[in-house]
Amino acid sequence: MDEYISIALPKGRLGEKVYALLSSLGYGCPALLEQDRRLIFTDDENGVRYFWSKPSDVAIYVERAAADVGVVGRDILLEYEPDVYELLDLGFGKCRMCVAGLRGEKPDPGRTVRVATKFPHIASEYYASRSRDIDIIKLNGSIEIAPVLGMSDVIVDIVETGRTLRENGLEVFEEIVPVSARFVANKASFKFKNARIEEMLRRLSSALEEEK
Amino acid sequence: MATGAERSGAVWELGRLYESMGYRRFKMSRFEEYALYLENEKFLPAGGIVTFPGKGGKLLALKPDVTLSILRSVSGERLPKRIYYNENVYRCDRSGELREIRQTGIEYVGEAGIEAMGEVTALACESLAALDGGYILDLSHMGLVTALLGESGLGAAAQEEALRLIGGKNSHELRRLMRRSGADEEKTELLCALAVFSGSFEEALAGAGRFAVCPAAGAALGELRALARVLGGVADLSHIRLDFSIVNDMSYYNGLIFRGYLPGLPEGILAGGQYDNLARRLSGAPGAIGFAVYADMLEKPGAGREYLADVLIVSNGNARAALAAAKKLRAEGRTVAVDAPEPCRETLVIQEDA
């Protein structure tokens, strides 16, 4: 096959699920499942090239055409607003982008809200749309601890089951947007490898339709 | 695929191509009043502008754009005016760093009828072909997109959001947006179909009839059909695609728009379209159509393998023979490098006893 499609997958459960789906649709690459130190995995027969990436980097690889297509959460797309085509909502990897804080301690609308988050862009857009003044505290992980330690009034973060929140005495105050995994493509790759990307999109759409 | 060096070289030749079609060079000043850009912010590509105070406290800007200045310069002149430019512009990138961007392009200022559209689109194709024979030019029509958004029943803010979603071929979020806004199901599906619609120019155009739901949409499709007829004789239509997800700001662009891509580049290198409203306001002309080629993109890594020169001459200590060979090869129109560490296409080794 002369035209390879390179695919960026997010490391972790979501990426594994996406690979299982793609593999069942004729885009298998058995080398991907071998535990070795290779970074890029190619399957000549199916004309695909895969690599694993940090979930928040998938969109960057696709935007810069290091990958033709990839799978990325809507949270990342909203935060970084990469210039890519968002071709399909895969409907899994579902969670919610929420505002949460200590149970029963919703912040007073009369003063600046201190917001701890990994998603400063989403948080500022959300509060700007409500004309609220906020102080953003950018963190890289364990966001839930910020209100517990009194460093922030609320957090803006993704909530899957809500268990971590409950265990730390937090609750969801508001839901900002629902989140799920999205199939994205580089805009230039979509032109030059159009037939192959459209075919991949068609197979993915019908597989998801059948699952419904 | 052409190499990065070949493409960078070819970009300087574009001026000659434009001159051969009667376009005259425009040389602009380094600075303009900031107010010009502030008033037309949405026309400019995203990115901050660098400002500084000039004489008398007037706020000046390092030029982030050339088109606005060209339009002002032709005010009151006989039309049509055909102009090309080759300028550095200054814009901040996403990370906020100031960048100098080499930009070349043309503007046809005057009634942008089918002849002007054909001329400018053909020049866009020739510009791309000069850089790489494997190019693709995507066409769309803002008149069609704006008409369908107008028919959708969405409010102004929702239309802006819908336009952004169309630009990302994001039909699933577009469908949700329209359902939330209470739009009717048929119009929702039509707009979603528009977002994902693309294909080779003639074939796609034949299948685009379903979008002619109002006179404005029908007129836009009519223009595209007329353009296909005009281009049929002068451009290789197999490089042209129709893709309605190519969108620009609705308040500036009103007609044909296009974006050009080269193999190996992650984003479009050529962008342009018809912007009659802006032309009317700044120059008094009835219309204008043009495009820019972002030459700086050719310098990015990944823009093809770089060769220093056609021939590497290994002198073996014989400078006289090496320089004589270099002179001869250069006279044949080839580029040479003597004893260079970088890769060249071919190598010529001078014998030690030569």
List the helices and strands and how they pair.
The complex is a heterodimer of chains A (212) and B (354).
Chain A: E1 5-10, H1 13-27, E2 40-43, E3 48-53, H2 58-63, E4 69-73, H3 74-80, E5 85-89, E6 95-102, E7 113-117, H4 120-129, E8 134-138, H5 145-148, E9 154-159, H6 163-167, E10 170-179, E11 181-185, H7 187-192, H8 194-211
Parallel strand pairs in A: 1-3, 1-4, 7-8, 7-9
Antiparallel strand pairs in A: 2-3, 4-11, 5-11, 6-9, 6-10
Chain B: H1 4-19, E1 24-25, E2 31-33, H2 34-39, E3 51-53, E4 59-62, H3 67-73, E5 81-92, E6 98-109, H4 114-131, E7 136-141, H5 142-151, H6 156-167, H7 171-180, H8 185-196, E8 198-200, H9 201-206, H10 215-232, E9 240-243, E10 256-261, E11 270-274, H11 276-283, E12 288-294, E13 311-314, H12 319-331, E14 336-338, E15 346-349
Parallel strand pairs in B: 1-5, 7-9, 13-14, 13-15
Antiparallel strand pairs in B: 2-4, 3-4, 5-6, 6-12, 7-10, 8-9, 10-11, 11-12
Helix pairs in contact in B: 1-4, 3-11, 4-10, 5-8, 5-10, 6-7, 7-8
Describe the structure.
The complex is a heterodimer of chains A (212) and B (354). Chain A has two domains: 5-93 and 180-211, D-Maltodextrin-Binding Protein, domain 2; 95-179, Periplasmic binding protein-like II (D-Maltodextrin-Binding Protein, domain 2, 3-Layer(aba) Sandwich), CATH 3.40.190. Chain A is of the alpha/beta class and 212 residues long. In chain A, the strands form two sheets. A six-stranded mixed beta sheet of chain A has the order 2-3-1-4-11-5. In chain A, strands 8-7-9-6-10 form a five-stranded mixed beta sheet. The mean pLDDT of chain A is 94. Chain A has helices spanning 13-27, 58-63, 74-80, 120-129, 145-148, 163-167, 187-192, 194-211, and strands spanning 5-10, 40-43, 48-53, 69-73, 85-89, 95-102, 113-117, 134-138, 154-159, 170-179, 181-185. In chain A, 43% of the residues are buried. Chain B is α/β, with parallel strands linked by helices and 354 residues long. Helices cover 38% and strands 22% of the residues of chain B. Chain B contains twelve helices and 15 strands. In chain B, β13, α12 and β14 form a beta-alpha-beta unit. In chain B, the strands form three sheets. Chain B has a nine-stranded mixed beta sheet, sandwiched between helices. A three-stranded antiparallel beta sheet of chain B has the order 2-4-3.
